[in-house]
Amino acid sequence: MSDLPRHDVADLTLAPQGKARIEWAERSMPVLRQIRERFEKERPFVGIRLAACMHVTAETANLMRTLKAGGAELLLCASNPLSTQDDTAAALVAEYGVSVFARNAIDTAGYYAHIDAALDGRPDFVFDDGCDLVNTLHTSRTEMLAGVKGGCEETTTGVIRLRAMAADGALRFPMVAVNDTDTKHMFDNRYGTGQSTMDAIFRSTNTLLAGKTVVVAGYGYCGKGVASRARGLGAMVVVTEIDPTKALDATMEGFRVMPMLDAARIGDVFVTVTGNRDVLRAEHFQVMKDGAIFCNSGHFDIEIDVRWLEGNAVGKNGKIRHQTDEYVLADGRRLLLLAEGRLVNLGAAEGHPAAVMDMSFSDQALTAEWLAAESASLAPGVIEVPEEIDKEVARLKLASMGIDIDVLTPEQAGYLSSWEHGS
Ligand SMILES: NC(=O)c1ccc[n+]([C@@H]2O[C@H](COP(=O)([O-])OP(=O)(O)OC[C@H]3O[C@@H](n4cnc5c(N)ncnc54)[C@H](O)[C@@H]3O)[C@@H](O)[C@H]2O)c1
What burial class does residue 210 get, using C-beta atoms within 10 Å of its C-beta: 0-12 exposed, 13-18 middle, 19+ buried? Predict the structure, then answer.
């Protein structure tokens, strides 16, 4: 075992199981596979150390394989304690030579110790999913900042935090908002969160959604996916919003829109996907039906006020089912919280299907290649992914699906770029 890279994982004997899982995911990741084959030849990351703080899942493992094929030295820690697949973590260490620091269900101190362990490897570039690694670099590990040339951020919440850092003049290197590509948003936030959130609700409760009232808080990219999938399963869907345009959009799509206090009285199942805090709180718990189920698919575990439930419920039947805690209130009502209020699709299911992560991680891989070549010319701040990368990922995906599209004729290209033609 001494020739293995530095690591802290739960059980290395799980490696064969993890390898099978990683290879299974790879079957649904044809775009990333094409990129890996090119990286094997071109080796764009030779001599480069990359630290990633991401969900330690089979799909992330395939991103790690792709970067390693390009010659990178890799350090990986988890971006969520509940999403780590211990078998995948073991396989990454034992089979693919990646330095992994991640154990499922680790406590907060352990979570941050793992981020520190990854940073101890002195990365040149960082990949983040929620901005915890970049935040650690700028707060408790500032001695490492000088060596970091740039990085990529995977999710909405991370980009929001990065923009806040940049606005304060605090961000010390360029961070590319991979989250903001069309190919990421469309697949990951909408189709991925939509399907995998339903999957998590079924795995944890096995509830029948048809005929039930499902309340979706937030009608952004993720909320649209959750609402449409819930409707497809026969649920009556209510949307809550704070943005008038989004609320109007949901209304025109045929969803009922109302304040959460009204929705709380009629909902059977609640999903928060706002990226905000305290979306479900005391005043809502106090009017919910007996047996109401609620969960969060937004990035952090503060969308549902779990602390209120912990402090005010008269009883708790912990883990009465897979990732399901039942809180008993003083009046006898039982409220069911899934995955402790953390990202439910990762905590109670397996996260997005591999075909979804194929897109996000292809964006990541191509952006990393671009960043490695261009970082010296980029100023600190939040940077958009070059449009060509987005289009290339969409092109590769279409090719893998056997779909051809039209190309502009020279006349059409000329027409679209001219301003002389009127009516
Ligand atoms: N579960 C996953 O796998 C997954 C995948 C991608 C993104 N995310 C996370 O999901 C969250 C939402 O992402 P998004 O891309 O949909 O963001 P978004 O900005 O497109 O949408 C969020 C929506 O929530 C609304 N909102 C804010 N506060 C609200 C409140 N108090 N009540 C009701 N609505 C409110 C906003 O107006 C906005 O329309 C983020 O935290 C993101 O990081 C999770």
Answer: exposed
Amino acid sitting at position 149: K
Give 15-71 pLDDT, tens digit per residue.
999 999 999 999 999 999 999 999 999 999 999 999 999 999 999 999 999 999 999
Measured from the CA of 274, which atom of ligand 1 is nearest?
24
Nearest CA to ligand 1 atom 10: 298
The pTM of the whole model exceeds 0.70: yes
348-404: pLDDT as tens digits: 998 899 999 999 999 999 999 999 999 999 999 999 999 999 999 999 999 999 999
CA of 81 relative to ligand 1 center, distance in Å: 20
Residues, the chain: 423
